[in-house]
Amino acid sequence: MGQIFQKHATQFDPSLIVKLKSITMRELFDCVDTIDKYYPQSCYLNQEQFDDIFATLTDNCIDLFRRLADQTGEDGKLSVHTFEALAAFAIFSGESFETKCMFVFRLFDFDLSNTLEEQEMVSTLQCAVRAMCKIAGLVIPSVSMLEKLGYVCFQMMDEDKNKHVDFDEFYEWTIQYDELQEFMLQYSGTQTYQYALKRMVNAMDESEQQFNKWLRECKAPQVPAIKLQQNLYQIYKGIDELSIDTLFYMIIEYTLRSKSIGQEESSQQQKDLWAWKADHKKNQHLLQNISVKRSDYLDIIRAWNVYSITDVNQLSIINIKDLKLLIWLYEDEEPDYFRINQEMSIIDTNHNNIIERCEWMQYLCSEESMQRRQTPQVLMKKVFDNYDEQQCGLIPIIYIDKLLRDTFKQQMKKMKDFKSIQSVNSLIQQLKVEFLKQVKKNNQSHFDWHSYYQFLVEATKTHSPLNKLLNLNRD
């Protein structure tokens, strides 16, 4: 379809976009009522009419009028197309992308059929695209070019070929059109969950590739903590030092916590970490014996990337409107209104109605928060990863006894009577024999996580105490 929104905006004003984002749909509908009451026949608005209608939305009406205006008529006076103005205010408002789409869709549904016909679609594309380009200071496509585009888009949207496009067809097309999504992200600070998720997947791929590069440079299965710290300062040099220090501390703390699962906790390393946190410049040497594996790094950097994707203005500031997307991206489940308000009150520790990057990281990566999300399967996988020394996804079968014991170690610590502990030890021996028989039957010298986990799941059917012990029903 070509490049509709040409790059290199010449008159882009970020402060204007911020002001427009404060507009709500309720305020915009008040403007529609004013048009219906006083200017029902006005296809174009002069500056006085424009100010009369939209002055309640912004204190910058003159600048907006000039941006949206065209020369019309033989006298060459400036005027603004009424529908372009409404489309512009809707598109750059602070509402969700779906709400904006619904407003624009209904704006051009002239026959009130709840569908757009071909000519209505042409009008929609012409007004909406021209309005977006004018506000953003981009090159404005010609009317004839947009007319052709409107016909093409109509054919693409009209999947059932009934010569009408309903809202579902219209919305589905807009969220899949990456060029439009990128424009909305860059110039209006709006993004859909679908586009944010796509960006998130790309960000995690880049993070993994970056860590793999560090592994190759270190020629080791893990990255030394001091080297990791240097790398983080390099790739995030545009972000404040406190945020980077917080990220690094969270990664190291998570690494030590991960190593302690199923094993005796390394108290000296934990003390070293606390000392480093108290004065990290003075106690830099304390990190020399700590290294980070890929899975631990990616677990923490995911929280960092989610924030970066949501923080469209790159100011390390997120408000309650953005919190919904932040949680949705991280948990892959849309939160409701009550959940959003509850999380806002917990995360916003300084009560300024803004979630800063450090607040988000500290909340999400705290031990209490981590424990809430540690399902039995996740904990078992971490124990498995501790034995995957080469990080190739395979463990030699000679480690099966230690792996099983470490898998059950946390549960055994909670047991107070000798009989219960002895019963678990007996169960471990039975599982070991059964697993070795299964692996050797296939002539395997190593096993992966999937086969190990599936074995335990199947074993719960024949060993009734196992299911209660592992609590697999939580998954």
UniProtKB/TrEMBL annotation:
Record key words, sorted: Calcium
Keyword Transcription regulation: no
SUPFAM superfamilies documented for this protein: EF-hand
Pfam families cross-referenced by the UniProt entry: EF-hand_7
Secretion signal span: none
Keyword Transmembrane helix: no
A GO biological process held by the record: regulation of signal transduction
Domain EF-hand: start-end pairs: 98-174
GO MF terms, alphabetically ordered: calcium ion binding
Stated name of the protein: EF-hand domain-containing protein
Organism of this sequence: Paramecium tetraurelia
Top-level taxonomy: Eukaryota, Sar, Alveolata, Ciliophora, Intramacronucleata
